[in-house]
Q: What sequence folds into this?
């Protein structure tokens, strides 16, 4: 499973995994799996955690080793694709299937649905993505820009 991750990722995963390895035996409790995964930037649901455990035949009261954890992280990361999720949501808004939506419509979605942004946050986002408040948004480009990895200096 290590072939799917960079050495930096593996080190980060190992460090977080070790913090939750309470007995220092190379295992974490299954009940802590959701916490470990979320600490590493994924967003599994309780149902997804249950499925990961079922696939590996691990009881909810059981434990898992780091190798099994890496397999679970790989599966979780494969199924979480923010760019695709954003594109699907915006495509549903594009009634004419032209690849564009009104900036005002995007603002309404961002401030009223899901994890709501403030108008100030939307203004900053529009500024960063070169969206004019009274214009249209090419949502393919928008999704590409907002899902770029952040610069880490």
A:
């Amino acid at each position: 499973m290590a072939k799917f991750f960079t050495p930096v990722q593996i080190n980060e995963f190992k460090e977080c995994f070790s913090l939750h390895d309470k007995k220092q035996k190379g295992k974490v409790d299954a009940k802590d799996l959701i916490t470990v995964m979320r600490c590493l930037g994924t967003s599994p649901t309780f149902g997804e955690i249950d499925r990961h455990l079922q696939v590996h035949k691990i009881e909810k009261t059981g434990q898992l080793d780091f190798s099994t954890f890496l397999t679970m992280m790989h599966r979780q990361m494969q199924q979480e694709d923010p760019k695709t999720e954003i594109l699907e949501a915006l495509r549903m808004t594009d009634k004419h299937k032209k690849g564009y939506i009104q900036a005002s419509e995007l603002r309404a979605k961002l401030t009223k649905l899901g994890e709501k942004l403030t108008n100030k946050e939307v203004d900053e986002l529009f500024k960063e993505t070169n969206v004019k408040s009274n214009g249209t948004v090419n949502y393919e480009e928008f999704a590409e820009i907002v899902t770029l990895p952040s610069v880490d200096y």
About this structure: The two ends are 29 Å apart (CA to CA). The helical segments are 7-19, 33-39, 46-55, 66-79, 82-93, 103-112, 119-128, 139-146.
